[in-house]
Amino acid sequence: MGKKKNKKNKKIRKSNLQMIDTNDARKLHRRYANLERKAVDEYKLSASRQMANNVFQELFIDTLGIPLLALRNRGYGKKRLEEVFNETMTIFKDYHEERFKFEDVSGILKEETGIDFTQAKEDFINWLRDKAKEDERFNEHLFVYTMDEVENGRETI
Fold this sequence. Notes:
Helices cover 72% and strands 0% of the residues.
């Protein structure tokens, strides 16, 4: 009897794969690339909307909630707080429609009430810096810019 042939030399059978047209492959690739790009764009838009909602929530708490809470603590009732809230919202809308600037508000407050809003802002920034030195969690997330630093392009903590 003869020797058996080694299986290593066995011929490979033709596969069942069919040749596809390169134009069809390109179209298929473009379609999946467009779907992937669309999914990424939708994710970016969703993340952007979520970030905007978080920012506006923070702004409303900082700029509206805290002053209203202070007035409530000083004895203002529901009716007065609603009036202050509505007037504040009207002023916010006017400010965002650029009917006046920060300097206008600061000037009026200083002239009519003696409150130096610009100095109060600087004092608060300095307080935050001192707090950041004491508390490491602030150091990781807190970047405070004074108006001069923003205009001159310098950043400080």
